[in-house]
Amino acid sequence: MKAPYVEKLDSSAAQTRALAAALHGRHFDPFNLSFAARSAMRFYSLVTDELIGLGVTLASGFIGLPGHVAERVRTAHMAEDVGALYQDRPYRSILLGAPNGGVSHLGAIMDAPFLTSHFLLCFRHLKNADDVYSCARVGRRLAQRITRNNGDVQAIIHFDPVHDRPVVIFITHIRLKLMQVPDAYGAFIKRNLAPGGALVLIDCGYPWLQYRMRRRISFQVGGLGGIPDSEFLVGSDDVDNYLKEQKSPLRDGWRIKHAQHRLGIGPESEWGAMPEFNQDVARFAGRNRIRLVTLFAEHPADFSRLSFEMHREASRRDGCEPMYLFADCFSQVDPVFNLNSRVLPLWLPYYDARSFDLAKDILGSVSRDTQCLLTLHPSFAKPFDMIPLEQWVNLFTLGAPPLLVGVDPDRYPLDMSYTYDFVTQLKRFGKIHKDPVRARLDADDLVRVAQKAGLRVRDTGL
Length: 462
Description:
This protein is α/β, with parallel strands linked by helices and 462 residues long. It is built from 17 helices and 15 strands. The chain has a six-stranded mixed sheet with strand order 3-5-4-8-7-9. A five-stranded mixed sheet has the order 2-1-6-10-15, with helices on both faces. Helix 5 (101-110) links the parallel strand 1 (91-97) and strand 2 (114-116). The mean pLDDT is 93.
């Protein structure tokens, strides 16, 4: 591994690794705990919520990178590590661009690797959870070191004092987003894209207000959920009530007052695509006379709808009707499970109202006899935009209540169950319900299904 500094549990890295595991025919276990560790984790069920929250916060103090690592960061090494996840063999399609869980399921049903354009780095930085100024100052210094050595990335300092509250006390997040196709990606594509195959570019237009701190360095407050970007900056009654509950003296949001930095709209740190990267992909495809299919959507949830429809189309070709649906969430995905047991994927970006409405809409298109499985990513922060677990359970109760995977309903969202139960429970279900999806779809199928699902598609048709 050439870039051990990339955070492996980040949404982008986890979804890329999950797809790579599926293409190797393996389940994805992000934690890979030993039997002893899994057994020890179960004792958390005996601990109070307050102690669990304190434990998560303290554990965050032992993770993260020392500041000097910023000088060692190289995008070339990060790209080489991604390519090394996959086998060198012919692929009819190769996906690249902005990550999300829907793309992981797309890659699985298309037998296509995914080359992510996003990478998260977590640096140690002790501060108050609401200290936006310290985060901006330290983050800018670290980002300058990184961008000085890497002319092909945008660095976004990501400060989310609501969804990441237990972590931001000890960590400053910097997400690097590629602006050019790395040589390692280009070499991987040339080696492995089958003759007549297609590149599929994932272009997510999800926007967010950001401070422009330097050329190729920006600062983002907040992130995807039920809180608008402007509300993070200027506050609201809900924000003030949340801060009171957190015993914080801060009011009126986390804006940088009297800042010299211009505030503007940019691609959201975690999910939004970089226009410069998309343009370079188009140039690369044109130079090498490679067919390029570009999928554009305004929100990462739209790719979830697409992967759902692609899996359903594959089962139609197999002459089968899927009887199961699994709503996975955020970084908790295991695409090989869906393939091995003919389970329709419904990826939830988060546990907010937008994801809830997405699920409600998709569930309206399946049989009432469908058995649902459900997992939700634990926040440990109790953000005020979270839809309660009870409402999710009610939504996914069709003929019967959903099977909860890696979720302890008595502890959620202060719940460690997913670290030791998520993959174990999926494997157990898979041993009983074996019904592998045989069909695999290609770029022509993708274009047709994407247009039907309402995504904008551009196809060079080479």
